[in-house]
Structures are given as structure tokens and as C-alpha cells.
Design goal:
about 1200 residues, alpha/beta, Rossmann fold, 6 domains, seven-stranded parallel sheet, about 15% strand, SBNO_Helicase_C_dom
Length: about 1200
């Protein structure tokens, strides 16, 4: 009977023919460009997460085309996907959220797509429609240059103001200069949280930079508010601003002070955790008239449902038109995990280090007892230094292997990029200070961490009635520990050692944030401390040190680059086709950053658009079990990052780091299970002692299981988790995977690998149990079948809770999973090679029939892969012993009839036969099944859908698999793809009934007719789900629609101004050799060419035609007028007989120069308007502005003319 139930359950669990989605990326295709035509494809292989690719952006009718000159599209200044991002951002900004704030847009594109150009396009569209002030925040002041570059790349010359510092410089007693009254105010997040004299307080902004920014914006600000690299504004904790990051608090304050601002959140790594979305208020995912009352409810709802809910959220945001996320394809990039086996000497050093920390812990316990010191602070610092010590030690132990990898790569014609996070500069500075600046030799950062902890935190003073005194025992213990540390021979600083072994600073381009380093100068064998900028030439001027190093690498003068977190944004190290160094990059991750966003930023430095080859990534990790903790921490974030910002948890980088992800619900369950059985002194069920030893690579036949139990208890004691060998692990630590992976670093290699192997075995068991129970969530899964077609058209459902333009639709699919006889026979002839391969029949009868299957034996795993006539390929591997016990092998002749009978009888019926008590509701083993998928707006309905599924499970005999909410993806026979939530059809009807009842209750309540005794629907009575009814009512309230505004028309004057290079004294009065006689400049001549000629013509200054600065716009002034230059040479005065100046008065001379230019312009204008007139009347002396042709009376003072010129050149002259 047990085998009978197990076999039926196995078939039932395969009810939908699902398997994990292996297709991570798909090529991106634009589908919603509105009336924009003649666009060009993006110059790069851009992809999108496969799950997001099945979601289409909503249609748009926004008139973006009116705001962009045609040449931007025709010349591919903006590609199709960039135009699509701009278009949907602008359309989203026309929506007003229920509380009156303007809706925001999230631009989640990765490197290679052009986020900067899209931001520039969004700003241009708003600028030419009359919104002339915009705010742009980013991480670094240097990125302002990139912002200006992105604008100029699309021929836009809107003023980029250099932060609040330029506002300070341009503010005079009379007020702010016209040049900074509008444009793009570019600031860093550091500037945003800085203050004047009062300190930073977002609720009291007087005297702060925020207030200065708000004053610049003015009243009713409705320009763009760009949060570039918005991951810097994460970690906003609602209700606890003191614990939030200052950048997040400031971002929230700015959004609330500017409710009509057009907010754009821009980052490829902005939401690695749902909690980090808390500052993104303008997305409208929570608040009044939404499904979530506040951000706390939203975060709780998303986190309790795991990454599956995050995947749905990303897809729903795209469907609503508030989010796009594309990235450069990683198809050509390669990912390798390289495990480094430590040498015997390295293992000896590591084990000695572990014993030192264990002895230090014992000594601290006794010292605390002797000195009666406070223990809590000491242990907090102890474990912090413990973790940093072993992290530095692991990095140092990797250096020899990384040097070998780097040199091998150079020999094979590659160049190398080595990524790390920490440089050890703090330890270096501390050690240099401790040695009195007399450093001769390399410094071990690991040793410095340990020594500094003992010197600063080891308790040696005890309090007495007369004060404090040195405790002799404690002092001797500390000295003994320090002496022992000196004898360990800990490795040198990993970064300095790495640079030295790879050829020194002449061969390695270092891009880090440290000021100095230990180097060997001019071949000397004695290393000395040296400031990094001393080996840089002063010819580079203000160019930053890291940029100079980057240029040397890109030019091929240095073939190895080392970068830390300081250079992880804004620097490109890819094999750019425009630079000399076109070698393929080998990107070695020596140390992964702590956060996923930093990891992606670092990996993205060597993989960008316009590259000749994609990089090869090598993730270096030692075979030390605890060292995987650092990989695990970031791997978890990378998987989460993929789910939130790409719609698939493996899409963050293109690499699958799931093997390193231990900090999951399954990992926590496995850890608690392991602790429990260690304390009992027995092994976990389904785990063998031999499998633990094999996984730990322990080669000792004399090692017994009793020794293993004792070692495991000692491990818990050395990790500080228990106070004695018989004590239990506290409940708060029992599921703390992060603490476990941190603490095992301090164990010896042998014990560390043993306990880590044991944990991995428990994790595998935990996952297998979850799969059997139908609770394992692998993310987006594919529905597979031999034929999948859509039945009828998608039907809109749950209209009672429709939010905005996002509707919820039910899609019904007809899925045929069966494998007919000719197909399986072909499979048999092609793949059957083992004697055990072939057709099998069940030994027992199930529901008056026998079951048939085809099995292929996997000898190396001792399992069978199985194919059934009615359900096709099984996702489960059958244990060989179990299968042979339940089935016996058949000849081909005996198998054919049974196979065909099972194939035909299950076409439209379950395996229970005609006597099934659940009738048509039962789908167990059915071959042709109807699968129902809910698409569109799902997130607001999650709580209700889950509760209804639980309440109705027994009523409709749902299997364990059917009772679990799954995000599924399916490709139809016609090629169309659908992504949504798989949900049983009968329960969709039940949910609809509940929603209609809830709407009626809401209407009755509003009319005062609601009777407390009103009978609930039957489904709500079952299980006493009165709370569910309240949740439904709240969801109904969320049905309010967004208000959509009409945008302003394009202002032609602002359009012309945006794409015309602004005039200034510097570029308007330019030197032109060809204009000595007033000749007109050629159309389209570049300003740089004009400036290059200045060295040969210092004596003549020409007022140029406006057409010189932009080939697309012509000035009203047609001629060029020679004027005397203040630096005129005596020998060239004959060229300027028409100009009279007072050379004895320099101050007066400068005023007359401008005045005479205006006067000459007036003379030319009069001559041009009436060429035949010989009248030399006073009208010929009228003065005209060369910019706007405004006419001044002949008696106008120079002061008035100069004031007009200043305003006119800044674009603010009064045309009247």
C-alpha cells in the first residue's frame, strides 16, 4: 500500500509537466515606440530576462517625437530601445498618484544600454516643453563630466551646473547669475546630505544644501528629479529615520518637498532587497488607495513570499509601464569558479592562526574574570576582528594562485583585470604609525588586525579603590600571545604582494582609493612606503590618478589592472574597439564585495558595449569551507538582484551562483537540524558518515564516527555558540546561517571542512524534503508539453480591483504532455545503451490497471530518468533500487500495447478512472490538460489568492503541487510566450464570488445599510476566514485609477536653444584668419578649429555668425565684423583703420571694444537692408545687438549695453 500511494503521488506531483527555467536571457525587442519611425536598432547585443521578455510594455501615445529633432533618430543618436525607455518614462510622468504626487519611473538598464543618454533624452523632452530646471544626483562629482558628455552626444547644450558649489560661486549681492538660474543642477549624494552651519536634518532644512536646492527649484517645481545610481539612497527604514542612511532620508525629503517633480530612479542594481525600495515612493506601490496601506505592509508581503513574489513584482512593474530593465548580453562572456587548494605550508599557517584566536578567546575569558571588565563590548569587537582577520588571510593565501593565473593569461595573449574590495590601507596606516614611520618591509594586514586588537582591547587593567592598576597575569598573557603571533609568519598585504609579484607599479595599473603603498623602488630589495601620486607626472594636470592608471591600461602600456570599490563605478576597462589595448580581458575576482550592487558594478567594468571581445570571469575561492561565506553572502544578493531588477534571479550577471547560496529558508532549516543532531550525538536522517567524509576530502581511514561527534561539539564550543560541550545552541543562533559561516573561519582546516560538509549534506536533505512536499520554489518554471495551444482569447477577471491601466487576465492553455509510441520508440533506439535501459511495467495494479514507463539508467548516479506515456519526461530521477522493486522490464513487443493503452485512456481522464469521486476536477495523470494562468495585476491580490487556495484545497482535491503558487512561463506552438501565476480554474470562480460580495458590502457600508449579521459566502465561512473578508475590502479600496495629465506643447524657442551651443565671450569673439575682411564663416565649422587658429592671429577678434556653433540653426546676423583685439601688435594696425580706440586707457579701451562691435553691427545691418542707399544719415550709427538684433539708440550708455549683452549671452535677454 505504501508503494501504491508513493507512485500515485509521484504522478500527481508531475501534474503540470514543469521544470526549472534554464533560459535566462532573450534578445530584447522594442514593441511600443508609438508614432516614432525611421529609428535605428541599438548597436549592441542587448538582452532581457526571459521572464520579463514575455511581458509587453503597455501601448503609448505620448508625443515624444515633437520634442526631438529628426537627426537624433535618423543618425542613431538615440537607438530604438533608448527611445522606448524615454517614451515610457515621459508617459509615466503624466500620471498623478492618488495622493497628488506625480508618478515616478524606474530605469533599471545595465551597462551597454546607455542610461545616461536616456536620462538626457528625458530632460530634453521636458526642457523644450517649458520645464527649464532639473535636478540630477549621482555618486561621484566626476560623473558630471559623463552627464555633459551624454548630453553633447545627442547635440544638446543645456547648461549642467556644477552642483551647489557653482551656485555659491555665481551668487552675488545682487542675486544669482542668470547663467545658473536654469539648467541641470548636478549634485552628488554626499552634497545632498551636507549642510551649512547647522548640520544635516531633513526635517529642518534651513541652512542645509537641501534648502539651497529647494530655493533654486522655486515654487511648483515640475522638472526632472534624477536619482542616478540610486542604490546609494537605499536602506530607508520607515519610522526609524535615525537608523536609515542619510542619503535615503534626504532623497525621501526631497521627493516630498517636490510633489510634482518627474522622478527617475536609475540604477542596474537599485533593489537587491525589497527593503531597499522603501525610498521609491513615487512608484505608487503602496499608500492610500493601493493594496498596501504603507511601505511596511508592502515589505512584509513581499519578503514573506520570497523571491517568487519579487519576480512577479518586476514583471508587473514592466506591464504597468513604470519599469524597464535591459542589459548587454553576457552570451560571449565566460564564468568559471576556480577553487584553490592550499599548500601544506598555507594550511599550517591557517591552523596556527585558528589556534591563536581560540587561545585568545580563552585568555579573554580569564582576563575578564581577573579585571571584572565589561564582556559584551569586548566580544563584539573580538568577532568583528576575527572575521576581518580571516578574510584578509584568505585573500593573502590566494595571491600565489592568482599570480599564476595572471601570468598564464598574459602568455596566452590576454590582459588581466583583478577585482577586490578592501585594500588594507587602514591597517597599513596604523602599522606605520605604530612603527614611527620607520617601515622597512612589507606589512601583514592580517597580523596588524590581530595585534591591534590585543593592544587596544585585551583587558589588562583592573579597578581598585585607589584607581586602576595593571594585572600581572593579564599583561603576561597578552605579551605571550603577541610573541607567539610574531612566530607564525603571517602573509604580507595581499595587494602589495600581488603588485610586486606581477612586475611592480610599472606593470600594474592600480585603481583604488588608497593614498600610499609599500613598493620596491628602482629594483631595490628593500620595500619602502610611498605615496601613490609620487610616480605620476605633473603633465596630467587635474586628471585623477585612477583615470591616469586606467588610460595606461587601455593604451596597452600596462596589461594588468587592479581595481577596488573606489574604482567600481565610472571606469571602463573593457576591450574597447577605439583603444590600443584590444586584448580579451580575464577578470579575476580576488575578493567579491559585500553587496551585490558593488559586485555587479565591479563585474561591469570589463563588460560594456562597443567591445571587441567579452571578458572571461574567474571567481577565485579557496577550499576552506568558511571562505565560501563571503561568496555566499554576495551570491544571495546576486540571485535576489536578478529577481528584482531583471525578473529572474539568475539574470543579474549571467552567472548561476546558486551553488554558493546557503542563506535561504532551506539553509536555515538545515542549520537548525544539524545543530540539533550534533547535540544528540547522532547523524541526521538520510545522511551517511561516508558521504560527509567524502565531501570534506578527509583522507584518514582511522577517523571514526565517535571522533566526529566529539569534533563537532568542539567546533560549536570554539565558534562561541555553546558554553560547554553538553550545552545547547541558543535559539537565536540556531538559524543564523551568516553567523555560522562567519564563525567557522576560526576553525582548523580539517574541522572547518568537516562541519561545512555536514551542513551541505543537511541542506541537500532539506531541499529534497521540500521538493517531495511540493514546497520547493525554484523561481520561474517552464510548462513543457509536446503541444501547447491557447484556448479562446484571454479573459479579463477581477475587474473589481483593477488598478490603473493594469488589468488581470485569465489565460487558458491546452497542454498535451504525452509521448506516443513512435516517438518513444525512436528515443529507445537512439539512447538505450545500458542493459537496464528499456520499457518497464508495474508489478502491482493501480485502479485496475498497470502503469508503463520507459527508463534510461544513469550508472554514475545509480538512478533512472523516466518517461511515461501520459505525462512525458519526468522531472524526478528514480532511485534504481526503488524502480526495480516496483517495476519489471518488458520486451518491445509486450510494451507496445500497454504503452498505447495508457496513452489513449488518459487523454481526457485522470488515472483514477471513471470511478474517481472528484470527477472532472481531478487532473492526476491526465495527458491533455487545461492549465489556467493569471497574468497582469497579481501583486495586490497575493494574500487573497493564497488564502483562497488554502481554503479550497480539500474541496477540489488539489495535490501538493497544485496548492503551491508558482510563477510559470510557457511558449505556445505559435511561438508566443506567456508568464503568469498558475492557478486552478475553480478557485478563480471562488475568488470572483468573494470579490463581488466584498463590493456589495462596501456599497452597503457607504449607504449605512450594512447588517453585521450578513451571511458570508460559503468559502469564507470555512476556516472562519473573517479576516480574509477585511483583506478583500481593503483590496477593493485599491481600485482607484491614476489621473493622467496632458503634457505641454513644445516651445520652438526652447527647442532651438537646447540644440544651439550657448554663446559666450570666449566662443563668440573667436579668432578667424579667413574673416580678416569680413568674410562669412563656412557652415558647420567647429569651435575647436577656430580656437586652434588663435596662435597665428592674435591681433584680430571676429564676431562670428551664430551658424558657426551649430549646423542646424542659423543666426539672424549674417556677417562677421572685425574688431581690434586688446593684445594687438603694433605692426598689424593697418588692418583696423575703421576702429578708433583710446590706447592710453586700458579700462576704457575694453568698454569701447564691445561698444564699437555693436556700432559696427548696426552699420552692417543698415547696409544690408538697403544696399543701393548712399545715405550716410545718423541711422547708420544705430547700435544692434549681434545676438538678438535688438536696436539701441545712439546715446545708450556702455553700462546698459554690457548688461544687455550679459543677459543675452545667457539666453535671458528681453526681446522687447
Amino acid at each position: 500500500m505504501a508503494h501504491h500511494d508513493e507512485e500515485i503521488n509521484r504522478i500527481a506531483d508531475e501534474d503540470y509537466g514543469q521544470e526549472k527555467n534554464r533560459e535566462v536571457f532573450l534578445p530584447y525587442r522594442c514593441h511600443s515606440l508609438g508614432d516614432i519611425t525611421n529609428y535605428k536598432s541599438h548597436p549592441g547585443n542587448v538582452v532581457e530576462a526571459a521572464s520579463l521578455a514575455a511581458q509587453i510594455l503597455p501601448p503609448t501615445n505620448y508625443p515624444l517625437k515633437d520634442a526631438l529633432p529628426p537627426h537624433l533618430i535618423l543618425d542613431c543618436k538615440l537607438s530604438d530601445l533608448q527611445l522606448e525607455g524615454i517614451l515610457h518614462a515621459c508617459q509615466r510622468h503624466q500620471m498623478i498618484l492618488p495622493k497628488g504626487a506625480r508618478a515616478g519611473f524606474y530605469l533599471g538598464d545595465a551597462a551597454g544600454v546607455g542610461k545616461g543618454r536616456q536620462i538626457a533624452g528625458i530632460i530634453i523632452n521636458n526642457y523644450v516643453r517649458g520645464r527649464r530646471k532639473h535636478l540630477w544626483f549621482s555618486t561621484s562629482h566626476d560623473l558630471r563630466i559623463d552627464a555633459e558628455r551624454d548630453l553633447k552626444d545627442i547635440n544638446c547644450f543645456i547648461k549642467v551646473i556644477d552642483g551647489c558649489q557653482e551656485l555659491d560661486r555665481e551668487t552675488r549681492v545682487a542675486g544669482m547669475s542668470p547663467q545658473v538660474k536654469d539648467g541641470i543642477l548636478f549634485n552628488t549624494y554626499a552634497t545632498l546630505i551636507s549642510s551649512g552651519q547647522r548640520g544635516f536634518n531633513p526635517t529642518h532644512t534651513r541652512g542645509s544644501r537641501i534648502q539651497q536646492i529647494l530655493d533654486w527649484c522655486g515654487d511648483n517645481f515640475n522638472g526632472c528629479l534624477i536619482f542616478d545610481e540610486c542604490h546609494k539612497a537605499k536602506q530607508f527604514i520607515p519610522g526609524n529615520e535615525a537608523a536609515s542612511t542619510k542619503a535615503a532620508v534626504a532623497a525621501i525629503a526631497l521627493q516630498r518637498q517636490l510633489p510634482k517633480a518627474r522622478v527617475v530612479y536609475c540604477s542596474a542594481t537599485g533593489v537587491t532587497n525589497v527593503k531597499n525600495m522603501a525610498f521609491m515612493e513615487r512608484l505608487g506601490l503602496w499608500g492610500d488607495n493601493t493594496a498596501f496601506k504603507n511601505v511596511e505592509n508592502f515589505i512584509q508581503a513581499m519578503t514573506t513570499r520570497g523571491l517568487g513574489a519579487s519576480e512577479m513584482l518586476a514583471m508587473e512593474m514592466k506591464a504597468a509601464g513604470m519599469y524597464v530593465s535591459r542589459g548587454l548580453s553576457f552570451e560571449s562572456a565566460e564564468f568559471h569558479t576556480v577553487e584553490i587548494n592550499l599548500t601544506d605550508e598555507q594550511i599550517r599557517v591557517y591552523n596556527l592562526s585558528a589556534r591563536v584566536w581560540q587561545q585568545l578567546a580563552e585568555a579573554i575569558k580569564k582576563a575578564i574574570s581577573h579585571t571584572k571588565s565589561s564582556a559584551s563590548r569586548i566580544w563584539t569587537v573580538y568577532w568583528s576582528c576575527h572575521q576581518r582577520f580571516f578574510k584578509q588571510l584568505c585573500m593573502s593565501l590566494k595571491v600565489p594562485a592568482i599570480v599564476r593565473e595572471a601570468k598564464a593569461a598574459l602568455d596566452e595573449g590576454y590582459c588581466v583585470v583583478i577585482g577586490l574590495q578592501t585594500t588594507g590601507e587602514a591597517s597599513l596606516d596604523n602599522e606605520i604609525t605604530r612603527q614611527g614611520n620607520n617601515t622597512h618591509g612589507y606589512i601583514s594586514t592580517a597580523k596588524e588586525i590581530l595585534v591591534r586588537f590585543i593592544l587596544q582591547h585585551f583587558p589588562i587593567e583592573e579597578k581598585t579603590s585607589k584607581g586602576t592598576k595593571i594585572n600581572a597575569w593579564c599583561k603576561n598573557a597578552a605579551d605571550a600571545l603577541l610573541q607567539f603571533i610574531d612566530n607564525i609568519n603571517l602573509p604580507n598585504c595581499s595587494l602589495d604582494e600581488l603588485i610586486q609579484q606581477l612586475g611592480g607599479t610599472n606593470c600594474v595599473a592600480e585603481m583604488t582609493g588608497r593614498r600610499g603603498r609599500i613598493v620596491c623602488i628602482n629594483g631595490s630589495s628593500t620595500p619602502v612606503y610611498q605615496l601613490r601620486d609620487t610616480d605620476s607626472s605633473s603633465d596630467h594636470g587635474l586628471e585623477s590618478l585612477n583615470v591616469r592608471e586606467k588610460n595606461l591600461f587601455m593604451q596597452g602600456k600596462k596589461l594588468i589592472a587592479v581595481l577596488s570599490d573606489a574604482a567600481s563605478t565610472g571606469i571602463s576597462l573593457h576591450s574597447d574597439t577605439r583603444v590600443a589595448n584590444n586584448r580579451r580581458r580575464i577578470h579575476i575576482t580576488m575578493e567579491l564585495p559585500w553587496s551585490a550592487e558593488k559586485a555587479v558594478q565591479q563585474l561591469g567594468r570589463s563588460h560594456r558595449s562597443n567591445q571587441s571581445s567579452a571578458p572571461i570571469y574567474k571567481l577565485m575561492t579557496t577550499n576552506v569551507g568558511g571562505e565560501k561565506r563571503f561568496v555566499a553572502a554576495v551570491a544571495q544578493r546576486l540571485l535576489s538582484l536578478g529577481a528584482l531588477t531583471r525578473g529572474d534571479r539568475r539574470a543579474a550577471t549571467g552567472a548561476d551562483f546558486s551553488e554558493f547560496n546557503f542563506n535561504t529558508s532551506y539553509g536555515r532549516s538545515a542549520l537548525k537540524l544539524m545543530y540539533s543532531y550534533i547535540q544528540r550525538g547522532v547523524l541526521c536522517p538520510n545522511i551517511t558518515f561516508s558521504s560527509i567524509l567524502q565531501a570534506s576530502t578527509l583522507d584518514d581511514s582511522s577517523y571514526t564516527i565517535s571522533q566526529f561527534y566529539i569534533d563537532m561539539k568542539h567546533c560549536l564550543l570554539d565558534m562561541g555558540l555553546t558554553a560547554s560541550l553538553e550545552a545547547r545552541v541558543p535559539e537565536k543562533d540556531a538559524t543564523d546561517v551568516q553567523r555560522f559561516l562567519n564563525r567557522i573561519l576560526g576553525l582548523t582546516i580539517e574541522r572547518q571542512n568537516l562541519i561545512f560538509s555536514y551542513f551541505c549534506q543537511c541542506l541537500t536533505t532539506s531541499i529534497e524534503r521540500a521538493k517531495k512536499e511540493g514546497k520547493y520554489n525554484e523561481g520561474v518554471t517552464d510548462i513543457k508539453g509536446t503541444s501547447i495551444v491557447m484556448v479562446d482569447s484571454p479573459k479579463e477577471i477581477f475587474t473589481e480591483v483593477k488598478r490603473g491601466n493594469v488589468s488581470t487576465k485569465q489565460v487558458t492553455l491546452c497542454v498535451d504532455r504525452g509521448i506516443d509510441w513512435p516517438t518513444v520508440l525512436k528515443l529507445y533506439h537512439e539512447q538505450a545503451t545500458d542493459p537496464l535501459d528499456g520499457f518497464y511495467c508495474s508489478r502491482n495494479r493501480y485502479f485496475n490497471r498497470k502503469f508503463y514507463l520507459f527508463a534510461l539508467y544513469k550508472a554514475h548516479l545509480d538512478v533512472f530518468s523516466v518517461v511515461r506515456p501520459n505525462t512525458g519526461f519526468s522531472s524526478y530521477m528514480e532511485n534504481s533500487k526503488d524502480l526495480l522493486q516496483k517495476y519489471h522490464k518488458l520486451d518491445l513487443s509486450d510494451a507496445e500495447n500497454g504503452w498505447k493503452e495508457q496513452y489513449n485512456s488518459t487523454e481526457l481522464a485522470c488515472i483514477h478512472g471513471g470511478s474517481c469521486k472528484f470527477g472532472s476536477y481531478c487532473t492526476v495523470g491526465i495527458r491533455i490538460n487545461r492549465v489556467h494562468i493569471i497574468c497582469g495585476g497579481i501583486i495586490p491580490m497575493l494574500s487573497l489568492l493564497e488564502s483562497m487556495l488554502t481554503n479550497c484545497a480539500r474541496k477540489y482535491n488539489l495535490s501538493k503541487e497544485q496548492q503551491t503558487l508558482r510563477i510559470v512561463r510557457v511558449q505556445l506552438d505559435d511561438g508566443r510566450k506567456i508568464v503568469g501565476l498558475r492557478y486552478p480554474e475553480p478557485i478563480i470562480s471562488e475568488v470572483t464570488t468573494v470579490l463581488k460580495w466584498a463590493v456589495q458590502q462596501r456599497l452597503l457600508k457607504n449607504q449605512g445599510l450594512l447588517d453585521s449579521a450578513t451571511r458570508l459566502p460559503t468559502v469564507l465561512q470555512e476556516g472562519s476566514c473573517y479576516a480574509l473578508a477585511d483583506a478583500v475590502l481593503l483590496t477593493v479600496v485599491g481600485g482607484a485609477k491614476l489621473i493622467t495629465e496632458d503634457d505641454d506643447h513644445v516651445n520652438e524657442r526652447l527647442l532651438k536653444r537646447a540644440f544651439t551651443k550657448p554663446l559666450s565671450i570666449r566662443n563668440y569673439f573667436t579668432t578667424q584668419q579667413n574673416n580678416l575682411h569680413g568674410q562669412e564663416n563656412k557652415q558647420g565649422e567647429k569651435l575647436n578649429d577656430n580656437q586652434n587658429n588663435s596662435s597665428n592671429n592674435d591681433d584680430i577678434v571676429v564676431i562670428s555668425d551664430v551658424t558657426n556653433v551649430s549646423p542646424t540653426h542659423r543666426s539672424m546676423n549674417g556677417s562677421s565684423i572685425p574688431v581690434r583685439n586688446g593684445k594687438q601688435k603694433a605692426g598689424n594696425k593697418r588692418h583696423n583703420k575703421d576702429i578708433h580706440t583710446d590706447s592710453n586707457n586700458t579700462k576704457r579701451h575694453r568698454q569701447l571694444k564691445v561698444f564699437d562691435a555693436f556700432q559696427q553691427n548696426g552699420q552692417n545691418k543698415t547696409a544690408n537692408s538697403d544696399e543701393d542707399s548712399a545715405d550716410e544719415s545718423d541711422d547708420s550709427l544705430l547700435i544692434y545687438c549681434p545676438v538678438c538684433n535688438h536696436c539701441f539708440p545712439s546715446n545708450t550708455s556702455n553700462q546698459i549695453i554690457n548688461q544687455h549683452l550679459d543677459q543675452c549671452l545667457a539666453g535671458n535677454a528681453d526681446d522687447s
